[in-house]
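Troubleshooting log. The previous structure file for this entry was overwritten by mistake, so regenerating from the original sequence record. Sequence copied from the archived sheet and checked twice against the printout by T.R.
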Amino acid sequence: MSSPRTLLSRGQGLQASHVALAGHLCLEGRMLPIDGMVPVLITPFGGDEAVRVEDTERQVEVAVRSGVSAICLPAYGGESHKLAEAERMDLIRTAVNSARGRIPVIAHCSHASVRLAGELARRSADLGVEAIAVALPRSLSLTEDDHIRYCARAGKATNLPLLVLDYNPGGPTVGLSFVRRLLAECPTFGFLVIEEPLMAAKVGAIRDATGGQVGVLEGWGGTHLMELAAAGICGVMPGLGTADLMERIWRLRRAGSVTEAYSLFTGVLPLLLFCQQNPEIRHYAERRLLLRRGVITSETIREPTVALDRHSQAYGDEVIALFLRTLERAGLPRRPLE
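Regenerated output below.
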């Protein structure tokens, strides 16, 4: 059996320096492959702001057909901060049941209390997810030691692979020191998702220092995919609405078809930048896009949310239309369930 931290390549004979680019984290017989997109599913609401289970099922089916590496829910991109605990567990249960083993499900189990994060992780593991994700509690003023204790305790709640997500609006995200120390404390730690500019050097340092044992993914919807795919990330966490095109761009970039990759990337980048202005704008645009693509049946966002002015709404529709035209140019379906 592989050691608990081993990242195994999909293909045979890959060099160690390339392992993190297309990896499997193997833990007690469980295999989590990440090589490309890991979309975050939205939490679909009806007009009364109640969760629409059938729209979660439809999202899972789209992800399966898109050929992405895994799905993650309910994360911040899915308004997890607006959900009751029972709703979170119902969403995870629905995703696992809908996936039927066809795609790995990653349960986002973040909580300000590490005790409760661990409990969410255990309950999610019982439902059959393939991995656990937690975000560093940046709302609190914590040291690196504190963050390591938080992640190690949450990670040790199960024997599943652990993804750690970090977005630090007040400064830099965690780096190599954190990765080395957490890896020593928690052997299930296998992936780090970070959101910040100029992270290529950090990606390379983590890959080289860990020998590919920790794969790095980019958040921010994939805004820096073209740069960071060359730097050694193993994937990106976009929204589901853009994931199929982003997967195509990822494959082209990795295969050396740089001109074609850039040609398609120019059709999605304006939408990514529009979404990056505010989390609630991202919720708005992602729902509007998924509705246009026939994946969900309502674009309701749970209040409170941002009321966009008419100019922002018009621009949002413009960049969504550009994205849809780019889908057609790439030979991908606008409405993937039809």
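The chain has twelve helices and eleven strands. Archived copy saved in two places this time.
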